Amino acid sequence: MLHIMPDTATSTQCDPRWEILRRREAGDFFYSVRTTGIYCRPGCASRLPRPENIGFYATCDEAEAAGFRACKRCRPRESARNRQAEMIADICRFIEGAEDAPSLDDMAARAGLSPYHFHRRFKAATGLTPKAYADAHRAKKVREGLSAGEAVTAALYEAGYGSSSRFYERSDAILGMTPKAFRAGGTGDIRFAIGQCSLGAVLVAQSDKGICAITLGDDAEALIRDLQDRFPKANLIGADPDFERTVARVVGLVDQGAALDLPLDIRGTAFQQRVWQALRAIPAGETRSYAEVAGMIGSPAAVRAVAGACAANALAVAIPCHRVVRTDGALSGYRWGVERKRALLLKEGQNV
Predict the structure, then answer these.
(1) Local confidence band at 217 (pLDDT 50, 70, 90 cut-offs)
(2) Is the dihedral of CA 229, 247, 318, 146 positive or negative?
(3) Is 321 in the active site?
(4) d(CA 337, CA 84)
(5) Backbone φ, ψ for residue 49 (5° rounding)
(6) How do beta strands 38-40 and 30-33 pair?
(7) Cβ neighbours for 54, distance < 8 A, ≥ 6 positions apart
(8) Cα–Cα distance between 55 and 68 in angstroms, integer?
(9) Spatial separation of the C-alpha atoms in residues 58 and 51, rounded to whole Å
(10) Are 57 and 32 in contact (CB under 8 A)?
(11) Which of these is catalytic: 44, 212, 310, 321?
């Protein structure tokens, strides 16, 4: 039987990517050259290779897995990162400027990708799905409107919520309180007290939903001022004898690692709450890198955003951001000081 081998050059020239490559236009793919062992982006200024020597790849990783190395002239990895960053930034502006949240198909079409690939790349870059980013932006607009004194209904509709009932169903998760309470600056009773632990002063505050702050420092007055800044119109209640027992339990958490079986009033963005939930899953005596936490929440590219969420944590030890370290194991920033972070890890048996 006669076997007819396919004409590699012809098949390459039939591929629509060949025409983009031939014209040296930008494209969302990479090409390899069999005779040189390198891969490039379509707009590379190097000499156009023969069609029979070309292979096409969707990503740099695929080209490198096939045994090709990156071109030092067009730097395809750097180019890919820059193009993706520009694309993600454009989509974010598109979401933020839209009157209503755009559909996944609309965003993918604008990015020039399939909905599946766009969804995956957006989440990897921002740490959120496109829908979650749109929801977070709308929630931010609500918070800004309420903080500026707008009426609740006006702030909701200005942010693009077509139905106030849908927002009220999720208002606790989005704002940490009702819209009216947020507009009033977090009104309501918040009990607090200052205790002493092995790391210095510890402030514990509790709303009607649970512990809303555990902060550490050397200056008790500074801790109180920070609490006042976070809840400017709340009714702060100190010197409550019954609350002293709660403070003692928190001190036990800090000093002995005792379990804190108390409800937490966790307030943050959707992304922050995902990070904080992941931190609570890290066992005592273990650490994770920022990159590993980013992987735990399914957003491996969001390392800096993970670090930002750790820095925004206001529930020391209860949300154990002290268990997150650099990739090389070194200690980096901690809201309450690196030496306190070191002390907490030493208590948990870490050699730092």
Answers:
(1) very high
(2) negative
(3) yes
(4) 35
(5) -75, 165
(6) antiparallel
(7) 12, 18, 21, 31, 32, 33, 34
(8) 10
(9) 18
(10) yes
(11) 321
Three-state secondary structure readout of the chain: CCCCCCCHHHHHHHCHHHHHHHCCCCCCCEEEECCCCEEECCCCCCCCCCHHHEEEECCHHHHHHCCCEECCCCCHHHHHHHHHHHHHHHHHHHHHHCCCCCCHHHHHHHHCCCHHHHHHHHHHHHCCCHHHHHHHHHHHHHHHHHHCCCCHHHHHHHCCCCCHHHHHHHHHHHHCCCHHHHHCCCCCEEEEEEEEECCEEEEEEECCCCEEEEEEECCHHHHHHHHHHHCCCCEEECCCCCHHHHHHHHHHHHHHCCCCCCCECCCCCHHHHHHHHHHHCCCCCCCEEHHHHHHHCCCCCCHHHHHHHHHHCCECCCCCHHHEECCCCCCCCCCCCHHHHHHHHHHCCCCC
Phi, psi of 158 (to 5 degrees): -65, -30
The span from the CA of 345 to the CA of 106, in Å, is: 47
pLDDT in tens, 60-92: 889 999 999 999 888 888 766 777 778 888 888
Give the model confidence (pLDDT) of 120-141 as tens digits.
888 877 777 888 888 777 766 6
Highest-confidence segment of 43-52, 197-206, 229-238: 197-206
Q: Which residue has the tokens 């050059």?
A: 9
pLDDT, position 10: 65
- pTM exceeds cut of 0.70: no
Q: What is the pLDDT of residue 193?
A: 92
As a whole-number percent, the residues of the chain with pLDDT over 90 amount to 25
As a whole number, mean pLDDT of residues 248-265 equals 84
- pLDDT of 319: 92
Query: Which is the catalytic residue, given 40, 71, 92, 212?
Result: 40
Note the pLDDT of residue 253: 87
> Residue 223 pLDDT more than 80?
yes
Is residue 290 within 8 A of residue 251, CB to CB? The reply is no
Q: How far apart are CA 343 and CA 349, in angstroms?
A: 10
Could you tell me which of 218, 255, 280, 282 has the C-alpha nearest to residue 347? 255
